[in-house]
Amino acid sequence: MTKLTNFLAQKEKNFYKAQAMVSDNQSVLMFKVNYPSLSKLNGFTMFVFYECIHTLKLEDIDITYSQHGIEGIMISEEDPIVLKQRFVTFENTHPLGRLIDIDVLTKHKMIGRIDINEPLRRCYLCENIAHVCIVNQTHTTVEVQQAFIDRVIDYCKFNKEKTAALAMYCECATTPSFGRVTPYTSGIHSDMDISTFIVSIQSIAPYFNKVSDIDPSLSDKQYFMALRNLGMCMEEAMLKATNNINTHKGFIFLALMLFGAYHKYPNQALQTSIKQLALFLKEDFDLQPDTAGLEWSKKADIKSIRHHALEGFSEIIKTQNTLHKNMKRYEDINDAFASTLLTCMSFVDDTTILKRAGLTTLHTIQQKASTISQDKEKWEAFSKECIAYNISPGGSADVLALLVILRVFFYDKGEEILWK
Question: Whole-model pTM?
Answer without folding.
Answer: 0.91
